[in-house]
Structure formats: structure tokens, C-alpha cells
Specification:
Shape: globular
Number of strands: 0
Oligomer: single chain
Distance between the termini: 29 Å
Number of helices: 6
């Protein structure tokens, strides 16, 4: 593995599985874009150490289902690197509230009172 991959904050098995992706041109383009935006004073969500938080929370071999979504975060302190998730104490985003309602309606999962998916 090259230096770029070994410096990424991500669980080791995921790092191995995604090593080829980290080497592809599109990944460098995304990384450079984010660096330039940050240098231009833009706010990037989630903060750098949380970009791969989903991969750190669940080791590769423990993954059973992957939900991928896009839900813009509106305020600082909301993004935590897990799609739709917000820290405890932060208002549940509308998209996550919809997911909770559908899980409850479909399979009876109790609706949590928080938006922290960890």
C-alpha cells in the first residue's frame, strides 16, 4: 500500500478492500477539490476525521447491509460521517425521520428519539 492509503483514517480491513479505489484518478480529484474548497474558506461536512466514520464504525467483515444516501447537512455540528446520522441532542433530520417511520411501518422497528446511528 502506498503512503496515501496508509494515512487514511479508516478501519484496516476497509483500507485493504478499498486500496485500489484510493489509487484511481477520481479519488485524487475529489481529494484535491476538498482541499481547495477548505483552503478557500468553505466548510466541509463532515469534518476531516469523520469522512470515513462509517467505515470505522463497522469493520468490513461485519457489514450486512449498506444504505447509501445523500442528505445535506444544514448546520455545523450535524455531520458525523454516517448517512443521515446526527449526534445525540441534534434535531433528527427530515430524511432520517422518514426512514424511521418507514422502518416502523414496514417491520415494526421502534422509532428512536435521537438521530445518532452509531
Amino acid at each position: 500500500m502506498n503512503e496515501k492509503v496508509t494515512n487514511v483514517q479508516i478501519e484496516e480491513r476497509w483500507k485493504t478492500v478499498l486500496a485500489d479505489e484510493f489509487q484511481k484518478p477520481y479519488f485524487a480529484v475529489i481529494k484535491d477539490f476538498l482541499v481547495q474548497e477548505r483552503q478557500a474558506g468553505k466548510t466541509i461536512f463532515p469534518p476531516g476525521p469523520l469522512i470515513f466514520n462509517a467505515f470505522n464504525q463497522t469493520p468490513f467483515d461485519a457489514v450486512k447491509v449498506v444504505l447509501i444516501g445523500q442528505d445535506p447537512y444544514h448546520n455545523p455540528g450535524e455531520a458525523m460521517g454516517l448517512s443521515f446520522s446526527v449526534p445525540r441532542g441534534v434535531r433528527i433530520p427530515p430524511s432520517l425521520a422518514n426512514i424511521y417511520r418507514e422502518l416502523h411501518r414496514d417491520v415494526g422497528v421502534p422509532i428512536p428519539t435521537h438521530g445518532d446511528l452509531t
